[in-house]
Request: fold
Amino acid sequence: MPSLRSCEKIGCGDENTDMNVCSTLQTQDLWSGGRGIPACVPILSHLLRRRDWLIASAGTLALGSCARRPRPGAEPRVSITRAAAYTQDLYDSVRRILAEHRLEVRGKQVVIKPNLVEYDPQTVINTHPRLVHAALEAFRSMGAAGVRIAEGPGHRRGTLDLAEAAGYFEAIPRFEDLFTDLNLDETSRLRLSRPSSRLDWLYLPRTALAADLVVSMPKMKTHHWVGATLGMKNLFGVVPGGVYGWPKNVLHWAGIHETIADLQQVFPRLFTIVDGIVGMEGNGPIQGKPKPAGVIVAGGDRVAVDATCCRIMHIDPRKIRYLRLAETLGQTEEGNVRQIGEAVRSVETPFELIPEFAGLRVR
Amino acid sequence: MSFADDLSSIVALQGRDGGWGYRGGSSWTEPTVYALLAQAVQASTGESFARGAEWLRSMQRADGGWPPHPSVDQSTWVTALAVLLLAGRPDWTGRDQAVQWLLKQSGRESGWAQRLRLRLLGFGSQEIEQYAGWPWFPGTAAWVSPTALSILALEKVQRSWPQEAIRKRIETGREFLLGRMCQDGGWNHGSSKALGYEASSYPETTGLALLALHGAGSSRLGKSLAFAGQAYRSCRTAEGLSWLGLGLAAHGRTAAGNDKLKLIPRRNMVDAVLCMLAEAAAKGDNVFLS
Reply:
């Protein structure tokens, strides 16, 4: 039988729980600059299974009540770095970006979540594998205890086949050993705290829940349902197809914008690196056209990163509903963000929008 | 490797609890059913099969359905797979409940509330789903794969326990599939158009849909069969090739270059078994239909 290999929290809320935990969680701040998720946030007041608690340690924090008003001088940083192509110098660029953000990952478990959607390597649907490899190498060089790449595509079941066709096997040595298919990962059931959507709970993959840091690495794309798909929307890929199917239609019925917002509370320790080197415009996220934007946008404030990308794409972030719903998690206002690297004005390039989204354009 | 050698490899991966994982690890319903289907091709009723079937039976929930994994407290699409395997077994006592669970499931978009809502919003009858397919997860829309698997499962039940309700549901399921055909003749996950734009087919869902439509009459499927034949030649995944092979075989077609299956990487248990089942189907033993 060729190539078949053996391989390899916080759950709660159901009747089978044997432990009731309701406390505060001291979140170790991954940003040495003190930004990112506040050090002390209320944990979801829900029941936790002891085993899941141990596995995921600190996976769920209720952030809905943690409005983040930046202290003077403590505005979230978003970096914009020019990158004309997927060339070797990406490796230095990503190292520099992470250094600029003072990410402290020594001894931590990092999970990189790219956006893998379709098989065709000639299109711009997927996050480019070289950028993902550059991030992997950078986190390793920074002393991360473990770095995994993990993804759960929404339409296609053959995640490894998809990754191979998208160039990941070629670009990333030992890719198969480093990769977790989040669609088929073991799950924990999580009750959502004050959800924006109609969902009260979700099953989510333990690999992502147990990570000390999730790194969302989306492609900068327009999206025919929500306007733009960036770091926050990329978290749809953690919802396990093995439970919910392909597509993960439960998210659509519960409200796409709302579930994007809800997923953010489950992954409080998140850093975003957006592949905007060549993005997608028009009828994204699958059938659009390549749009060279020549940038990598990164930061620890996911809302600020996505809002910055929108501004680069000439989309008004205040008109993207999921960004408004997640405003308590980060900054949409440009004036509240400390921009490092390039200025938005110097790299902005209008992404073509389908007529249904013409109203999202910056006026 | 022969079918028997492949089967030995599958049996060797059986977990202590009797089930199978996707790539090792804990047992899931889907790979367990496929491992047992592979054994069923050889009419194996050995210890491995008995332990696997017992694990599967123990996973049936009070509502009649199956969860995808023991940690999931919800019956889902994998119920169709379990029924497909257990339907013909006289010692299975949970059949009626399982069938009732399957019959109760339908895509939310075909429910009266959603149809009324769309009508009030001014959608035309072509845009409103007339036929009930099956969802992956209860309370959501119907899609190609769970619909095809549910049709195949109910057909198996129908052979030993014929009922009008089952026959009707199989019929509407097939109409659902035909309605979701893409312009190229194949099927993708179940959305042939998005915002008016034509979407492309996938090999794996095309094969699976053709398999479920084996009794629908080839006159409506000429384009689909031609597409599947072409897709087989260009497909490079075990999942895609297997389902295409199974689908083509169900219509009496032989996939050109069947030896591709032997060379293609198999990513997990399900891939490995599907390749075996497709090879068996090419030789006339289609476990989904027999």
